[in-house]
Amino acid sequence: MAVRIHRKEAVSMDKIVEAYIKSMKIAVGLNTQRIFAAWDACSGAGPYTLRRYFRGGKLYITLNSSVLRSQLVLQKDLLIEKMNAFLQQDPLFTQDNKTVGFVEELILK
Fold first, then answer.
1. What gap in Å lies between CA 28 and CA 94, rounded to an integer?
2. Whole domain around residue 104: which residue ranges?
3. Which of 8, 18, 52, 54 has a CA positioned 20 to 30 A from the CA of residue 106?
4. Statement: the pTM of the whole predicted model exceeds 0.70
């Protein structure tokens, strides 16, 4: 008995990647890594960053330079806007994730 294969509609790669990320349940870790990449790209302080932690919309950053921290404190709102814009453009960032979403607050230590 021959099995008949039915032709399905074509699916774009971005839909396939999105479905794969959801099925493998790696969206939380991937979003967190994309947020850290956004920090590096938008702040320029990647080489001076000692620790990063993201939870509940808050990005905690520990810097090894107090001078740089003082300058970045004055630019918190602008940095948050730039990071969120960076994340919106990132095709790997899952925007509808309830656990890890956009950056709401930046805490510099």
1. 9
2. 13-108
3. 18
4. yes
